Amino acid sequence: MIMRVVAPLLFIVACASLAAGQGLGSANNQSLIGSALRARNYGQALQLIRSQLRESPKDAKLWTLEGIALSGLGNNREALVAYNHALNISPDYLAALEGAAELEYKEGSARAIPLLKRILKLQPDNSTSHAMLAVLAYKQHDCPTAVQHFRASADLISSQPVALAQYGSCLMNLQRPDEAISEFQEILRLMPNDPHAHYNLAVAQLTANHGKDAIATLAPLIEGQNPDPDALDLASSAYEDSEDTPRAVSLLRQAIVSNPKNAKYYLDFAALSFKHSSFQVGIDMIDVGIKELPGVAALYVARGVLFIQLEQFEKGEADFATANRLDPGQTSGAVAQGLAQIQQSNLDQALATIRSKLKTHPEDAFLHYLEAQVITQNGAEVGTPQFKEAIAAASRAAQLKPEFVLARDLLGNLYLKSGQLDKSIEQSRLALHDSPSDQEALYHLIQALRKSGRDSKGELPVLVKRLADLRQESRKTEASENKYKLYEPASSAASDTGPTN
Predict the structure, then answer these.
(1) 233: nearest Cα among 218, 252, 220
(2) What is the DSSP-derived secondary structure letter of residue 381?
């Protein structure tokens, strides 16, 4: 990977020290140690170095050379002791810092981090140290730090697919897919025949709303006699993103036929059916999935949701109950059941369902949000204990998941109703930060600014126009989604399909 750069540097430093005759005893011994290290005769070098250490036990360079020799013999534990001894004598001795950092890094130890940071204080542009810190930060799931150091070591990692993949992964994690694209493109350039390189680049392109680019990237994986089912599934999403629903449906059916034991494909088909209000077609496909995978709770949740859209409430409730029985630890069944009960205006039962699940999943942000939503829909008046419970539940949801836009929207509305205009403005701005096209947050912000009379920056006209533009865009999107209805061919649920206008 990255780190074999350090050992040659250490060897160069060691030989330079010998050539300069910096406190290493007689010229003859210097020459012998240098010759032994160059010949990789580490045992002989170690004997010579220890002989010199008896005469000069406070020489950091000698201890560093011992570390190099011991490392060459594969005795990394003793080598690390030698490097640390050198650093006790001379804390900023670069060769010892590099040697200790490399060994700690190879072990995956966080103890490498302070050593690498000390190196960077001495050499701020040390690409190897930046790269090491990046990898360690990635392994600790600290993507902001990892990205910072990957960027600083860009030249070094440009030919290393593993490091590039970690860099790209962190950029995706930080919701910066446009930047991740260039890293995954470089991996594909280095490994043009690797299907994972094609797939990962396409994921980044699709996430960045470049659906047509993703389609082109996936072409080698979906064309031919044995297309990759995962690539077919991803290409389906790309075609849907490019408003080619018939092709999206065709590819997704092909993925299901290729691998009927993958629940994700059925769930994606259900989502596509839901989006285009083709609920029965989605149910029929989930039926096929349940026959193949009768123990997957998520399939029952998906079918239950589709049943609810057709107002077949008993069937939906039965599926939610089955999902909870199959996987009591999951919350999606309870969430769907609560939503179904809300849709039936059975708010008391919905609240009981949600609170029952909260007892075993108190850290579930969506359940807290649903609790607040049900209390609000049940007519909680401003100033009542119920209204305060709704605010507390929505606040807890936002606390557990700060980017939870729905919870922010609800809080913005509740604070607006109760006249807490500053708090309403705050929540609406937070929601818009994470979702700039959030019409509900925008509406609450406009209302709160108007009521507070604090539009000192003259935002209102801009915000009103922005809301109007978003509403017009939403109408176009809705029209596009309603353009196609999925239908089921007479042959089988998993065969090809097409549009009807």
Answers:
(1) 252
(2) P
Q: Which range marks the domain in which residue 77 is found?
A: 3-123
Which residue reads 């300069």 in tokens? 20
- Distance separating alpha carbons of residues 215 and 222, to the nearest angstrom: 9
Alpha-carbon distance 147 to 130, whole Å? Answer: 10
Maximum Cα interatomic distance, the chain, rounded to a whole number of Å? 94
Region of 191 please: left (phi>0), alpha (psi -120 to 50) or beta: beta
The structure's pTM equals 0.71
> Cβ contacts of residue 329 below 8 Å, gap of 6+?
none
Task: Considering only CA atoms, give the Rg of the chain.
Answer: 31
* The total number of structural domains that make up the chain: 1
Helical H segments across 327-420, by residue range: 332-343, 347-360, 365-377, 385-400, 405-417
Q: Is 217 among the domain residues?
A: no
What lies within 8 Å, CB to CB, of 307 at 6+ separation is: 279, 283, 313, 315, 316, 319
Note whether residue 33 is domain-resident: yes
- Print pLDDT tens along the chain (501 aa): 454 444 444 544 444 444 444 444 555 666 787 778 788 888 888 888 888 888 888 988 888 888 888 988 888 899 999 999 999 999 999 999 999 999 999 988 999 999 999 999 999 999 999 999 999 999 999 999 999 999 999 999 999 999 999 999 999 999 899 999 999 999 999 999 999 999 999 999 999 999 999 999 999 999 988 899 999 999 999 999 998 999 999 999 999 999 999 999 999 999 999 888 899 999 999 999 999 999 998 899 889 889 888 888 888 888 888 888 888 766 666 666 666 666 666 778 878 888 888 888 899 888 898 889 889 888 889 999 999 999 999 999 999 999 888 899 999 999 999 999 999 999 999 999 988 888 888 889 989 988 888 766 778 888 888 888 877 777 666 555 555 666 665 444 554 433 333
- Phi-psi category of residue 278: left, alpha or beta, with phi > 0 → left and psi -120 to 50 → alpha: beta
CATH number, domain with residue 105: 1.25.40.10
Q: CA 297 to CA 137: how far, in whole Å?
A: 35
Closest CA to 253 of 274, 280, 235, 278: 235
Whether residue 214 is contained in a domain is answered as: no
